[in-house]
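User: Hey, my collaborator sent me this sequence without any context and asked if I could get a structure. I don't really work with proteins. Can you help?
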Amino acid sequence: MRITKIDNQKKRPGRKNVYVDGKFFAGVSTETLMRLALRTGDEVGPDQVAILKKTEEIFSAKNAALRFLGPRPRTVSEIRNKLREKEFGDEEINRTIADLTEAGLLNDTEFARSFIRNALAIRPVGALVLKRKLLLLGIDKPTVDEAVNQLLEPGNEEETALKAARRFLKTATGHHQAVDKRKLRQKLTGFLGRRGYAWGTIEPVIKKVLQEEGE
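Assistant: No problem. I've predicted the 3D structure and written it out in structure-token form, which is a compact way to encode the shape of the chain:
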């Protein structure tokens, strides 16, 4: 078989129509043709055809992943699941993930750190909530634990819990009208628990804010 013609696709820049022995053979990307150094007049056998198809599949998978990465960073698991939804094979998916990781576009460690910083900037939350959300995004537990431990040291977590408790207390007590301290303690405990703080953080924080309220 011989490539008899290669021309541009009118509605899809960056893609070419390839004709073999005078008949349309396939639509492929310019990158695929360049990678394989295929030109008009080249002979192609079954092996070259198989390589062409495989190279084009990998290119398509990478393009799909890049589009998915467009709006925001993604985890490796998110990319893998998206490509599976689009019915790419494991070989194409693994190659795409490897290429994007090498290019610095996929990095679960950096994703976890950025996620934690953004979450804490929006509102104070505890380690339990952060870990749960990151695990749900498919990041492995050692990576999650390392990122949380680095960015949310015990003292820092207590400080964020204290800020959250003070805001809650201000809303709950209004203009310092008399309140039932027992009920307020229960509400604070529930509030901080829902924010993902462990009891080891909640207990000293509640003592401190109730003491401040009494003063």
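In plain terms: The chain has three domains: 3-102, 108-151, 154-214. You can pass these tokens on to your collaborator as they are.
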